Amino acid sequence: MEATGNQNHTTNDAGIPAPSDEYSLTAGADGPILLSDHYLIQKMAQFNRERVPERVVHAKGGGAFGSFEVFEDISEYTKAKVFQKGAKTDVLLRFSTVAGEAGSPDTVRDPRGFAIKFYTSEGNYDLVGNNTPIFFIRDPQKFQDFIHSQKRRADTHTRDSNMQWDFWTLSPESAHQVTFLMSDRGTPRTWRHQNGYGSHTFMWINASGEKFWVKYHFKTDQGIENFTDAQAKAMVSEDPDFHLRDLAESISRREFPSWTLNMQIMPFAQAQDYRFNPFDLTKVWPHADYPLIPIGRLTLDRNPENYFAQIEQAAFEPSNLVPGIDTSPDKMLMGRLFSYPDAHRYRIGTNYLQLPVNRPKSQVNSYNRDGSMRFENPNDPVYAPNSFGGPRANSELYGEAAGSTVTGELVRAAYSKHRDDDEFVQPGELYRSVLAESEKENLASNIANHINSGVQSDMLPRVMEYWTKVDPDLAARVSKSVQVK
Ligand code: NDP
């Protein structure tokens, strides 16, 4: 911010000239303050209401604007206009940690949110992903409990690694994501030096109505860079806003970070017999089975001018899907379709989609109306169908996953198992085949540090059994550094 000779006069929020920036209205210089000082009362009342509830997860974050450009013809897979060759679409990308509160430090060990809003010509498309291709659980029934275990205790209001490991070891499907989290990628050096993944499996539909299953991989063009555990911890005290600052400063320097979008594409019919359940959020699709297809580039080149208006009030929702893109039987995705818009209605109000950062750049012809803080409302006719020239739904434009069939008895059950489904196969593969020797050492010592931060002795055998199932060599390395009191 530079000093300028701004000559504007202060007003209150009704535009009325403010009586003073310094003095309250009193009966005599030393006398009591009068209730008729509307200006003072408005300032105090507004101040008390400055905070909207912080996000219950992903509270601390930052973001920037930019664009996404497609360089490959993939019209055989999707008719979505945002993914047609040559299309350039404005985007907002918000990064975040998951478990910490709004003021928490950036560099702690945690997955990072990687949430993109594409302002497409067919309405907003939101891809609300993370910097990991997988997640801790696969059924939304467990999400609230999972998050409770990672946040604060009821009694001391402190975080407790014993309860974190309790949940993880009782939920073996978490092993893949916990391996990722404890690896060097659990502490990215900056938001710019990490990948982003759509994580879920989505459906793409082409102009002929053919359907495909897809996964999104945004690979950083800056290269992957991570902090060690010690560096990340040191940065917590040196600069708790390190990631926020790094992104803003790099864009200010015109070093615009970018990511290349690669897709994995599975023909619709292959899902049934694929060796892993392709909708299970705790699994990846090995690249050898479904190679990455580079299709476009996302670049961030504009910092927000106003954090609260453009980032804190940004509302991403996995339910914002445009024609040519649809959901899949991923149960976590199903849960998120409901929970995100529900959170926004609670957090920032029922008409959050009219806020400038959330409003689509395409035309809105909705019959939804009224409600708190609505400032654009449909005129008559206010219902459909009508005979007075109001908008009509054109279901061909949307083209939902027509032709899909769903059958089955009502049950509460695990996903059906595919040939190679097992909780520990993929994390074991990550350890044995992907990590370099130094990364294996770091993984083992990061796990041990975390265990040493609060796991109790009666929990330890379960924790060690969990890592033995991932890989016995990893468990042996971990046990060397474990010092449970
Ligand atoms: P590949 O050898 O074909 O791919 C392994 C992938 O792992 C790399 O392409 C890279 O993906 C990612 N990777 C590289 N170094 C690290 C690291 N230090 N920490 C975490 N991930 C890393 O093998 P598969 O596709 O068969 O996958 C093997 C294992 O790799 C999986 O079980 C999974 O744990 C992990 N992995 C797989 C991904 C996938 O979508 N198939 C994606 C990421 C990890 P990237 O460029 O996306 O970072």
Counting copies of identical and different chains, the oligomeric state is single chain
SSE sequence, one letter per element: HEEEEHHHEEEHHEEHEHHHHHH
- Rg result: 25 Å
Strand content: 15-25%
Q: What structural class should be given to the helix and strand makeup?
A: alpha+beta
* CATH H level, superfamily name of the domain at 61-135 and 184-360: Catalase core domain
CATH topology of the domain at 61-135 and 184-360: the name is Catalase HpII,  Chain A, domain 1
- Counting DSSP E segments of at least 2 residues, the number of strands comes to 10
Helix content: 25-40%
General description of the model:
The chain has 13 helices and ten strands. The chain has 485 residues and is an alpha+beta fold. Among the domains are: 1-50, Cytochrome C Oxidase, Chain J, CATH 4.10.91; 61-135 and 184-360, Catalase core domain (Catalase HpII,  Chain A, domain 1, Beta Barrel), CATH 2.40.180. Strands 1, 2, 3, 4, 5, 6, 7, 8, 9 and 10 form a ten-stranded antiparallel sheet that branches. Strand 3 (112-120) and strand 4 (123-130) form a beta hairpin. The longest helix has 18 residues, at 331-348. Bound molecules: NADPH dihydro-nicotinamide-adenine-dinucleotide phosphate.
